[in-house]
Design goal:
five-stranded parallel sheet, 16 helices, globular, alpha/beta, six-stranded mixed sheet, 44% helix
Amino acid sequence: MFKRVLLQEILDRSFKKKTIILLGARQVGKTTLLKTIIEQQDKKAIYLNCDEPQTVSSLEKRNLNELQMLIGTNKLVVIDEAQKVDNIGLSLKLIVDNMPDVQVIATGSSAFELRNQLNEPLTGRKFEYQMFPLSTAEIYQTEGFLGVKKRLEPRLIYGSYPDILNQGDDPKELLRMLTDSYLYKDILATDNLRKPDMLDKLLRALSFQVGSEVSYNELAQTIGSDSKTVERYIELLEKCFVILRLNGLSRNLRNELKKAKKIYFYDNGVRNAVIQQFATTNMRNDMGALWENFFISERIKYNHYRHHYCNIYFWRTKTQQEIDYIEEADGVFHVFEIKWNPQKSNAKIPKSFLESYPVASTVIVTPENYMDYLM
């Protein structure tokens, strides 16, 4: 079993008179982490699964006496899939304000639903974390340098979900189950989403456009819809931690693309499962896009777990000058060109960008040096 980065941080933040919120897609390991926390805390604990209707009903009543009876003498309360509970934030506020010796940890697989319920009631009363599929640093902590190197190609094809890496005998079947049964569950439960076949078409279209600019109008034509519906579906996919968006950086140059955007998947395996493409790296014609998706998603994990807050972009001009990935922190820019072929490690950063922006560092990322920027 892989040790998760968030384990010690959540243990350290426990019993500080605040609710701990843990967000992340289904199957990234939230429940396993919670059970590990229960085992390591020397406190009496109760685990409440909100996929069970009776649990949801008990938490929705928002009556202090009934909540106290539900919790009993337990000092650690774990609420899994808390977005299922209507106005869960009000119930959590009652617990935080009236039971100061009780620590609540609540998880959610839909940021869209859970954050809407928590932000106002729990203002100043919560610590919030996001959990991802396994990161390069987490694999390194468990399996060392050689383990990270050995797992690179499988992770590019099958991704980094814990079940894939822990039980990798049949990764295709595990990914099929993940995408069919779990990953879109919260999206399909949304009241405004009535056409799951359209969601499948959109995901396929996005899978083929990884690393390229996307147009909502073009996507709408491809799936037989309109741009507003496409934007709504993309927002839901992002809030449920399936995809992430990069906007184009545009501030100084007249010919910069001002409304450009790219969309990546949080996990390579999910992307490949959508299009049912599991060929090995030497048999693919999309390795540039796969490598770019992998590094950007891993870099986001790295920054999040290290509390390195930055704005992220790509950059492109009308004359086709481009930069794959940019981080802006404290007023300066860190520039990454992402190349699958190590022979392209001498690629040049466009001079016009270097002259227009305060650049602190430039890096050409290849399979030979990528670990330097993820651990």
